[in-house]
């Protein structure tokens, strides 16, 4: 892996473009560094695939054709190269270390768990970060392999309260159904003790009604999961896609909190350099067939 480009925001967030080689620029990924929470803890959001086979309509990576998995060596190199640049630029501060490595960049981690497992082992053995986390839509046929990973947190992408909504937003047939997703990860949490966060991207007119709020309360076990309400980041325009951020997030957050849920309202860092959730893409993209969702 080589770093092809670094873009920095005014607040110190950085977006790295890394390529597997000079000969095929489609085989490139992006990683984002940001300092999250009030403690300004340094996070590195990394990629695990070139493109993505899941095809989430709200995600730049999902709109391009999948071009294969990153290897364990490439995933580790991605972190080492970014870390070296961060150390040289003084971005890691006095502690000189990453707090968290997140598999939440390009690709669906549960479609590349063998290589990710090797990478996580390296991260832990080299003490490259205090914590390693993973975000996934939940892939049925690889789910049991998650038990082999020493994760500190896992986030699951729900984003809907019915299977019809979720199939529209996340068209992959390999994912769990809405109910099965929550049942599986409730058992995973019970068996491992690993905290599980339920991501819910709020979209105007799609999943932000009072009916959705009521279903969300019924679906999610407040004693098991943390709910993270997410804001839609800007993505490129593709004919047929009409997505707008919802203005109902404060009302949802208030209602969920009052009902006893642990709820986070999240707005991505790095969006001003197109490094936020859903904004990462390869240098040269092969766009998959166009979507029509509304």
From TrEMBL:
Gene Ontology terms: biological process: rRNA base methylation; tRNA methylation
Assigned keywords, A-Z: 4Fe-4S, Iron, Iron-sulfur, Metal-binding, S-adenosyl-L-methionine
Cofactors: [4Fe-4S] cluster
Species of the source: Xenorhabdus stockiae
CDD domains the UniProt entry points to: Radical_SAM (cd01335)
Domain of life: Bacteria
GO molecular function: 4 iron, 4 sulfur cluster binding; catalytic activity; metal ion binding
Record has Metal-binding as a keyword: yes
PROSITE patterns registered for this protein in UniProt: RADICAL_SAM
Gene3D superfamilies registered for this protein in UniProt: Aldolase class I
Annotated protein name in UniProt: Radical SAM core domain-containing protein
Chain ranges of the Radical SAM core domain: 38-285
Coiled coil regions, renumbered to chain: none
Pfam families, per database record: Radical_SAM
Entry keyword Iron: yes
């Amino acid at each position: 892996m080589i770093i092809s480009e670094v873009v920095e925001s005014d607040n110190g967030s950085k977006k790295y473009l890394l390529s597997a080689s000079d000969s095929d620029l489609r085989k490139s990924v992006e990683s984002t560094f940001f300092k999250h929470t009030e403690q300004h803890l340094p996070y590195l959001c990394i990629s695990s695939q070139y493109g993505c086979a899941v095809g989430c309509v709200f995600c730049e990576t999902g709109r391009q054709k999948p071009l294969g998995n990153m290897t364990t060596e490439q995933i580790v190199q991605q972190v080492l190269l970014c870390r070296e640049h961060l150390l040289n630029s003084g971005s890691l501060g006095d502690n000189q270390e990453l707090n968290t490595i997140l598999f939440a960049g390009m690709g669906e981690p549960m479609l590349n768990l063998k290589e990710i497992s090797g990478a996580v082992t390296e991260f832990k053995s080299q003490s490259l970060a205090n914590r390693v986390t993973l975000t996934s839509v939940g892939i049925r046929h690889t789910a049991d392999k998650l038990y082999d990973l020493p994760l500190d947190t896992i986030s699951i992408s729900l984003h809907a309260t019915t299977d019809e909504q979720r199939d529209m937003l996340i068209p992959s047939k390999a994912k769990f159904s809405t109910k099965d997703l929550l049942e599986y990860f409730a058992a995973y949490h019970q068996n491992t003790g690993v905290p599980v966060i339920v991501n819910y991207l709020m979209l105007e007119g799609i999943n932000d009604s009072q009916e959705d709020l009521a279903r969300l309360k019924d679906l999610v076990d407040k004693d098991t999961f943390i709910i993270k309400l997410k804001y839609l980041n800007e993505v490129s325009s593709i004919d047929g896609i009409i997505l707008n951020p919802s203005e109902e997030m404060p009302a949802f957050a208030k209602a969920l909190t009052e009902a006893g849920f642990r709820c986070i309202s999240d707005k991505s860092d790095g969006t001003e350099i197109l490094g936020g959730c859903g904004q990462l893409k390869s240098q040269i993209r092969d766009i998959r067939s166009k979507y029509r969702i509304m």
